[in-house]
């Protein structure tokens, strides 16, 4: 290694798996400082985040968080769930968002949230937002994403009174800045977010968070997709596809870099039919396209869309992977996991929930300068 130019060493390290880099922090103090540097973390994220093997399935059950070790090329169709030991996060019960390898997780009985990196086991507890509904009968929805204009991660909380008269009133919106470690109140949401009882978190795409909502248009109440831009922190709406079914039965997500809406059409003993609407051109109603998938099992709900093109479904104590191109499905048994409760895809990264708070980056920058290279920011 001493014979290699410093920039080659950095280039090699920036392409390695997170698990290896976490071990390599013990090689020397310079390597530990380098691998912990935010600039290096962003270089690594840029070079690895689109690699399908860098994407992991996360499961949550019994107040525990699990990561799934699964080899797509294996013919055994068996996955291993490994419980994550994150001492500071007690009793996690919901995944509220994911961005660049960081998770927003709710934990405990109180309204307590954590930002954590499951790959490095780093975490911080967020302070409670001082902005919210005065009534004790209130509910909140969340979103989490990255503001590229100021290199900051933001948590969005929208709080509503949960009563018959106020359920469609404007929500109180506050934004937590990881860099500032504080909450700010922004404009109230002009939408009714109580589309269903689940109150799913915002879907992150193109630097904005998206929710299925109701919108008052004169005397009419229409179903739209609300959009909160994380840069200017303004609400807008995105046109949904033309549908006749109730908005409450739909699921919003991201598929191949596009918004999608999943609609259950039939459910019987022969299996499930779903219509999948994909917005090919963001913000253009005419670009919504539809395809239908049929899954032969009676399955409770879809989980996520991995980058390999398969669709992942919840199916008892196992998962089912459906390939829409080949119209085939296969079951994957999960070992070491008690009961499937909640799932999502997670990108492995070195991004730290502490780095934006000014952790010792000067020493790392000096080391990078001495090595003859300074990684560019993503």
UniProtKB/TrEMBL annotation:
Transmembrane parts of this sequence: none
Domain F-box as annotated: residue spans: 1-43
Signal peptide range in chain numbering: none
Pfam families for this protein: F-box, FBA_1
UniProt-listed NCBIfam families: F_box_assoc_1
Name of the protein in its database record: F-box domain-containing protein
């Amino acid at each position: 290694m001493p014979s290699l130019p410093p920039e080659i060493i950095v280039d090699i390290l920036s392409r390695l798996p997170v698990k290896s880099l976490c071990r390599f922090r013990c090689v020397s103090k310079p390597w530990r400082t380098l691998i912990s540097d935010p600039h290096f973390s962003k270089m690594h994220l840029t070079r690895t985040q689109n690699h399908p093997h860098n994407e992991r399935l996360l499961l949550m059950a019994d107040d525990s968080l699990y990561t799934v070790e699964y080899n797509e090329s294996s013919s055994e169709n068996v996955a291993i769930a490994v419980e994550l030991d994150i001492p500071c996060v007690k009793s996690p019960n919901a995944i509220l968002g994911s961005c660049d390898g960081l998770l927003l997780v709710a934990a405990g009985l109180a309204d307590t949230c954590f930002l954590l990196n499951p790959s490095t086991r780093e975490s911080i507890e967020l302070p409670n937002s001082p902005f919210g509904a005065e009534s004790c009968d209130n509910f909140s929805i969340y979103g989490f994403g990255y503001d590229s204009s100021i290199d900051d991660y933001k948590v969005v909380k929208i709080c509503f009174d949960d009563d018959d008269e106020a359920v469609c009133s404007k929500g109180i919106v506050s934004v937590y800045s990881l860099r500032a470690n504080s909450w700010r109140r922004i404009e109230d949401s002009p939408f009714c977010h109580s589309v269903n009882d689940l109150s799913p978190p915002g879907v992150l795409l193109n630097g904005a968070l998206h929710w299925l909502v109701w919108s008052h248009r004169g005397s009419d109440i229409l179903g739209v997709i609300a959009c909160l831009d994380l840069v200017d922190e303004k609400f807008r709406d995105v046109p949904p596809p033309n549908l006749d079914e109730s908005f409450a039965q739909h699921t919003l997500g991201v598929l191949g870099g596009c918004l999608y809406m999943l609609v259950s059409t039939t459910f019987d003993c022969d299996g499930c039919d779903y219509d999948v609407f994909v917005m090919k051109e963001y913000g253009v109603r005419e670009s919504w396209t539809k395809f239908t998938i049929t899954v032969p099992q009676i399955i409770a709900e879809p989980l996520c869309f991995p980058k390999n093109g398969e669709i992942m479904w919840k199916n008892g104590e196992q998962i089912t992977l459906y390939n829409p191109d080949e119209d085939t499905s296969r079951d994957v048994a999960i070992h070491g996991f008690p009961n499937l409760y909640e799932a999502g895809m997670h990108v492995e990264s070195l991004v730290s929930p502490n780095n934006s708070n000014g952790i010792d980056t000067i020493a790392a920058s000096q080391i990078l300068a001495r090595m003859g290279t300074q990684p560019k920011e993503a």
